[in-house]
UniProtKB/TrEMBL annotation, chains A, B:
SUPFAM superfamilies: lambda repressor-like DNA-binding domains, Periplasmic binding protein-like I
Top-level taxon of origin: Bacteria
PANTHER family: HTH-TYPE TRANSCRIPTIONAL REPRESSOR PURR-RELATED, LACI-RELATED TRANSCRIPTIONAL REPRESSOR
Protein name: LacI family transcriptional regulator
Keywords: DNA-binding, Repressor, Transcription, Transcription regulation
Start-end of Basic and acidic residues biased regions: 17-28
Residue stretches making up the HTH lacI-type domain: 37-90
Keyword RNA-binding: no
Length: 377, 377
DNA sequence: CCGTCGTTTGAAATCGATTTCGCGTGACAT
DNA sequence: ATGTCACGCGAAATCGATTTCAAACGACGG
């Protein structure tokens, strides 16, 4: 450690032997540039004070001429402001956190894209944290977000009851709940109209002529699932069957799954094993639909012989034949709206807390032609 | 520092009117706890110096008794160290960045899980950045990683030629390339044996009795694709057909796609339109397989009548019937290994640069029974 | 009893950017 | 000509944690 390594004590420069080629910037003794230039280096190079350099990069009032000098100096040194120092001083980082429970679910990745696109407008970077529906992991990420002084956080909570946003809310960090709102948390929220979606779905199946409509719901107690289920129940209750009597589905027609593929498969198997199996099923989320579809096929039933309507498009719908109608979720839009709302808060809006609700929409695909299509066989 | 609002000027506490209920912590005048406690607050509460508090939390030498006092004080105040200040002082954050080109591709999400699991061991948090294969976006994230002083970065580069890791390498930030190695970057890498995978795939198709084996490759110039293609070509060159002559596939049997669903569909359509269409296709990535499968179905060809072998499992294989054999990729393991390697570097290993290569493995699923299954028709 | 050594502790410097405060300058009105 | 005002700029404080340096302290051997 002769000439090269400054500060051999702290771990600042790791013993990372990058073999810079001959074309890398020379490290002259006289004009030795540090591995990363600071605002002080730029100030010295430009012959101004650090304060002025800061102002140049933050829209402070500086004469055009001097600003040009500073920019030139910065360019020469390859200066980029140290975001950590900046965050410390500002008490706020220029990063927003997005915490989602399942990075493998296209619903959340689409949502993430919406967040990213909206965030781009304010130069905020998005960092994504995947909790795997694990409340412990989620809690750690929430604490990291607080300790990193993130400018704001968008969270699709792993649990309605056990997710604890207080670390952030106490700091005054803006938080927007998306898709799921943790109970009792006083934060903005962007949700979708789950009940309406459940109604749409069930109505569609009835309109197509199915009569024994079952539902594979999510975990009991999950608000999103409960609302979808409520929509399903409401429609069936109001619907008069061919006899003019309300259709009252037997209680076995409602089966709870875990929002995952295997749960959907198991649920469908249970439905198929009933003495009088349903002729159509409303599945309360996309992944369970994958499982349900697999179970149906194994049993030799294919849509549309048995109707299947998914809340949320099946991942890679290209893979599914015949293509299924589904309740389209505004996943991208949820993310976009959440990020916009968050940025309003970050900018300092004092509006009262908001809850934005976006509508689902039914996407009908031709091949869902109703039970008749298979009745001959 | 008066009694009331200190620093009303800076934007530290945003005007965020969370309506705390009556059960929120009271803000007494005497025992007024700031929205977030610092090391100084803890020090005062415990009657020690800030240095001691720091030592307690970082394994410094402190008498057990005093340490207990400090911990108690910290607990009372709900103290959590400010990671930004810590990062500034340490010149390194306790966060590693993971930069991937397509968050919607299960290959990368599995990889991300591997990274997360490995990182858990050292208490490093993982932040995930999605570049959407956009070199500009990627560049911004790389700069953010440098400016945020992330402890290290794992990157699956969007482009082999245009991805520029110098911002990080110059700082001395450890970088590990995964899946794709940017040209000329002197960094560690964790790759998979693409060529071997291509060979395995092609051999399998030949062994199953297919004779006109085509290949849907990735973008020309992408090293991963080129290697897979090379494996395909090598096997065909060495293979002696029924006549004892080498099988030389016509040049039209190699079609380039863009690694996305639609590219796979288009490529397959082109193959099917040939005067003598192939009887089997090796598809160089999972998403293109989705498109290829869709095109096959539309044309009325289903595997195994036309053989289809994917490099990398199709997303949600449950959806695909009959299930396809495929080249299994060590996606999780790639991420895990990359994170381990990165952590070694962060810890300061001076080993020369490494490239770890993981093998693919062929997963044979029974239903890929060869062309015979369909020959009668 | 005193010098030496090792341990524990606190004061203060430090990381790099932002921002307040006050000074100097020039324009303008009186 | 002088007071007023706005503006540009630099010095210095600040954000919160880590770490060095030296002081204080206790134990122990001579």
């Amino acid at each position: 450690m002769g000439t090269g390594v400054a500060r051999a004590d702290n771990g600042g420069t790791i013993g990372h032997s990058t073999d810079r080629g001959a074309d890398s910037p020379r490290l002259d003794e006289g004009l030795r540039e540090r591995s990363v230039a600071t605002i002080y280096d730029v100030a010295r190079e430009a012959g101004v004070s650090p304060a002025t350099v800061s102002r140049v990069f933050n829209g402070g009032r500086v004469t055009a001429e001097r600003a040009a000098t500073v920019r030139a100096a910065a360019a020469v040194l390859g200066f980029a402001p140290n975001r950590v120092a900046r965050s410390l001083r500002m008490q706020r980082a220029s990063v927003i956190g997005l915490i989602i429970p399942d990075i493998g679910n296209p619903f959340f990745t689409a949502l993430a894209r919406g967040v990213e696109d909206a965030a781009q407008e304010t130069n905020l970077s998005v960092v994504l944290c995947n909790t795997d529906e694990d409340v412990g992991k989620e809690q750690r990420y929430l604490e990291v977000a607080a300790a990193e002084q993130m400018a704001g956080v968008i969270v699709a909570a792993a649990s309605r009851h056990r997710t604890d946003l207080s670390a952030l809310v106490d700091r005054g960090t803006p938080v927007v709940a998306v898709d799921r709102r943790p109970r009792g948390a006083s934060v903005d929220a962007v949700m979708m109209d789950n009940r309406h979606g459940g109604e749409e779905a069930t109505e569609h199946l009835l309109a197509r002529g199915y009569r024994r409509v079952a539902c594979i719901a999510g975990p009991e107690g999950a608000s999103t699932s409960d609302e979808r289920l409520a929509g399903y129940r409401a429609v069936l209750r109001d619907h008069l069957g061919d006899t003019g009597q309300p259709i009252e589905p037997p209680p076995e027609y409602v089966v709870h799954g875990d929002f995952r593929v295997d749960g959907g498969r198991a649920a469908m198997e249970r439905l198929l094993a009933l003495p009088e199996p349903p002729d159509a099923v409303f599945v309360a989320n996309n992944l369970m639909t994958v499982g349900a579809l697999a179970a149906l096929r194994e049993a030799g039933h294919e849509p549309p012989g048995t109707g299947l309507l998914s809340f949320g498009d099946v991942p890679w719908p290209e893979l599914v034949t015949p293509s299924l109608s589904s309740v389209q979720l505004p996943s991208y839009e949820l993310g976009f709206a959440a990020a916009q709302l968050l940025q309003e808060r970050i900018a300092g809006t004092a509006k009262p807390l908001q809850t934005v609700v976006l509508r689902t929409s039914l996407q009908v695909r031709e091949s869902t032609s109703g039970p008749a299509a298979n009745r001959g066989g």
